[in-house]
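I am still learning, so can you show me any protein sequence you like together with the matching structure tokens, please?
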Amino acid sequence: MAGELAALGERPRVEAGGVAWDGDAASLYRANLWLRTASRVVVRAARFRARTFYELERHARRIPWERFVAPGSAVRFRVTCRKSRLYHSDAVAQRMAAAIEHRLGAASAYTAGETPGDDETAEAGREQLFVVRLAHDACTVSADASGALLHLRGYRQAVAKAPMRETLAAALLVAAEWRGDRPLLDPMCGSGTLPIEAALMARDMAPGLRRQFACADWPGFPRDVVAAVTADAEARIRPASAVPILGSDRDAGAIDAARANAARAGVAADVAFSVRAISAVEPPAGPGLVVANPPYGIRVGERHEVRNLYAQLGHVLRRHCAAWRVALLSADEKLTAQLGFPMRGVVATSNGGIPVRMEVGEVPSAPEPTKIYF
């Protein structure tokens, strides 16, 4: 994410749990439009210390709420309290709502907390979210500038088994140092998230072009900035991917979903999807990148079957993809070892609540010899 921001011309500061930078309205909208790996962009509204509700109320009334909401607008608070004198999250949210009413002169309909999965839908964008964190009596109040989470690009309406988030797919491509300059193959693509994200990168298409962001509805947010940043992004789109991008899966239903998703993303002509088993893959002239999100042996498939799948994948890669780079998500180093060549972990994260690692390696340059039996 820091690398993405630097590429946008910002000066990112890596912090615990995220990346921060200083910028104007154009910088904020550009980040929402272009960041492929971020879940959410927030604006710091205030930072202060509060050990009592009196202190909390006094500081909260000084926050320029009018920058983010109009009088009477619906607001939502996500409050977390850790190792602080103020530990009741709903009570903190109530004080924040009262501070908005005091400063704006009108009560706002507000929600404390959120329903699990609430941010998974665009419905969350109808309320302005404020993220309030109390840690060691230090309070940070942030205004959500994104609305629905940024992985919701808008194209993935059809999914297959164990889908991965778009932001995680983009992060895996970044971790593999893929820049759209060499062929890409996903031999178990499911509903196509990895090849589609690769095509968006190869075409230099901003992932947020087909959606709206919460900050665009803030009072006084410059509409000309939205138009200018969007126009600049549209002008950067390349007419086609310069390299082949292939996705295959043995599940015909998954491939149907992948093709539909690619069409919605505007990259249907840039990704060649096909129904085929791993053993039948036909990679283009390389070397290139093989990227995959294989089953973890936890939710999909039995462990011994997954072990055999990794071994088969390694065999196919050594035979057909010599000198190619490989990047995949793995929940178990022992499974990755079945590939038969070294892999190194570069990022630890989670997918669907399962701890996983992004692992990158190189297929040996000498292909596996063909065995002839008499």
Residues 166-203+238-362 form a domain with the Rossmann fold fold (CATH 3.40.50.150).
